[in-house]
């Protein structure tokens, strides 16, 4: 128990349990129990009040700073959008040949660059143009690549210089009138000189960006089939190329075997001089360069006369083939294999490392020649658009009586289809349509990719005499050559 005396009277109480902090407990003074003083409560209230006032002003200051930063960020964002729009407009104007508009957008882009990156505006301009170029569609990119950037740059500089002279005349007049300071005039002169030196550099970077994108597109499709060096050089030979066959891929020998079996068992035939011959051979032999070699005797199936003479040429070729094979059945078998079908797929339906068909844009017809850039210089190829009709076949017979069919075929391509089916030209100057005028025909094709196919199959003579197709062996080699001016 605790004794507490108040006014001389003693009382007894149970012990007090104290759970509050010492600063909040009742204080003992001269043996008496008293509560917190009025002064203490006023002091604590004042401290609380000043703390709230301070917090209020801190909050106002913080919100103001946030607002100020948000406004600054919005200004930067608007300027970034303006730079992006100006860069896109430059490329769009170049594509359409609107060089005046391109120049105006260029000066706008440079002005933004001086605000956002004053220490290096040229780098900012180049970066924005490259970003804009990377967003172009394949069609727009190809259209811009057709332009001569050097010539565009020179003209833009000339236009800029003419504009600059007029601008300086006005500025000098303002200085003389006291309406413009000398320092402002100096800034204007520096701006003009910066833009003048910046235009050619920036356009060159745009060209390099477009070239890099085109190179990346070609590589993404051609991977594993033919590598392309950074300078566009292609020079490789493959003996393991796979050919696309609908839902699977096959070797060249398998393609020819299955194509021949299909025409032999399911195809149609025409009786020519008493011998059944595949209608594919009847159609293709007169327009193909097929040489039958039988000892000292040779025969070429090409019809050099008019269309009316084709049937007689076919009859002549079938008669020679019948003597060459020694039987009607063997002639029928050979005619099911030796024609353009199947063979044309060997260079036009090649697949890459992903097993996807590489779709080439072949050289258009009727142009007089095409250039192939190789390690030993530039080679001209006549009639570049003949495709499989320009292949040379040679049919011979071995000592054991088997038939060997060899092909020597150079196919020329001017471009390749990207993953979206758009054509990426190996040279922006390349035509993609047949020539219509004499001038177009004579102009030729600037740069092509050459796909040289050399190969042969060996057909069993014994099986052919029974009317069956049996492939004993096959070997093929693809050589890719060119210098792609991407």
Fold topology:
Layout: E1 2-6, E2 9-13, E3 27-29, E4 32-34, H1 38-96, H2 99-116, H3 121-134, H4 138-145, H5 149-176, H6 182-222, E5 233-238, E6 243-245, E7 248-250, H7 252-266, E8 269-272, E9 275-278, H8 279-284, E10 289-294, E11 297-300, H9 310-325, H10 328-337, H11 345-348, E12 360-362, E13 369-374, E14 377-382, E15 392-397, E16 403-417, E17 423-425, H12 438-443, E18 449-459, H13 461-465, E19 471-483
Parallel strand pairs: 10-15
Antiparallel strand pairs: 1-2, 3-4, 5-19, 6-7, 8-9, 10-11, 12-16, 13-14, 15-16, 16-17, 16-18, 18-19
Helix pairs in contact: 1-2, 1-3, 1-4, 2-3, 2-5, 3-6, 5-6, 7-10, 9-10
Task: Walk me through what this model shows.
There is one protein chain. With about 475 residues, the protein is an alpha+beta fold. Helices cover about 45% and strands about 20% of the residues. Strands 5, 10, 11, 12, 15, 16, 17, 18 and 19 form a nine-stranded mixed beta sheet that branches. It has a two-stranded antiparallel sheet with strand order 1-2. Strands 3-4 form a two-stranded antiparallel ribbon. The protein starts with a strand and ends with a strand.
């Amino acid at each position: 128990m605790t004794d507490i005396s108040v006014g001389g009277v003693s009382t007894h109480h149970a012990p007090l349990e104290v759970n509050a902090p010492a600063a909040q407990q009742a204080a003992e003074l001269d043996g008496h129990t008293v509560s917190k003083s009025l002064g203490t409560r006023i002091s604590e209230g004042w401290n609380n009040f000043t703390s709230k006032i301070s917090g209020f002003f801190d909050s106002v200051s913080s919100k103001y700073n946030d607002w100020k930063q948000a406004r600054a960020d919005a200004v930067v964002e608007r300027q970034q959008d303006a730079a992006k729009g100006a860069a896109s407009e430059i490329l769009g104007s170049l594509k359409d040949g609107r060089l005046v508009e391109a120049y105006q957008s260029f000066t706008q882009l440079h002005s933004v660059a001086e605000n956002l990156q004053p220490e290096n505006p040229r780098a900012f301009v180049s970066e924005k143009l490259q970003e804009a170029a990377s967003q172009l569609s394949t069609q727009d990119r190809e259209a811009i690549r057709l332009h001569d950037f050097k010539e565009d740059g020179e003209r833009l500089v000339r236009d800029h210089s003419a504009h600059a002279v007029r601008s300086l005349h006005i500025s000098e007049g303002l200085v003389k009138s006291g309406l413009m300071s000398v320092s402002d005039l100096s800034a204007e002169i520096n701006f003009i000189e910066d833009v003048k030196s910046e235009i050619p550099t920036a356009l060159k970077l745009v060209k390099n960006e477009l070239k890099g994108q085109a190179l990346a597109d070609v590589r993404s499709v051609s991977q594993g089939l033919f590598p392309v060096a950074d300078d566009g050089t292609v020079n490789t030979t493959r003996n393991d190329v796979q050919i696309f066959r609908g839902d699977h891929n096959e070797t060249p020998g398998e393609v020819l075997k299955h194509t021949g079996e299909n025409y032999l068992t399911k195809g149609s035939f025409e009786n020519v001089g008493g011998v059944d011959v595949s209608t594919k051979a009847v159609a293709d032999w007169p327009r193909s360069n097929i040489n039958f070699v039988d000892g000292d005797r040779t025969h070429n199936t090409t019809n050099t006369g008019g269309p009316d003479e084709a049937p007689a040429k076919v009859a002549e070729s079938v008669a020679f083939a019948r003597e060459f094979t020694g039987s009607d059945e063997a002639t029928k078998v050979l005619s099911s294999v030796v024609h353009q079908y199947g063979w044309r797929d060997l260079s036009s339906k090649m697949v890459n490392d992903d097993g996807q068909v590489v779709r080439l844009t072949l050289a258009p017809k009727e142009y007089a020649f095409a250039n192939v850039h190789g390690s030993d210089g530039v080679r001209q190829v006549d009639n570049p658009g003949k495709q499989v009709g320009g292949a040379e076949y040679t049919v011979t017979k071995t000592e054991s009586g088997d038939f060997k069919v060899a092909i020597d075929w150079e196919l020329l391509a001017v471009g390749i289809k990207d993953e979206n089916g758009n054509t990426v030209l190996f040279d922006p100057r390349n035509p993609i349509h047949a020539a219509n005028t004499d001038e177009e025909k004579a102009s030729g094709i600037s740069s092509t990719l050459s796909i040289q196919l050399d190969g042969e199959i060996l057909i069993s003579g014994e099986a052919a005499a029974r009317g069956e197709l049996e492939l004993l062996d096959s070997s093929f080699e693809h050589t890719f050559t060119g210098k792609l001016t991407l």
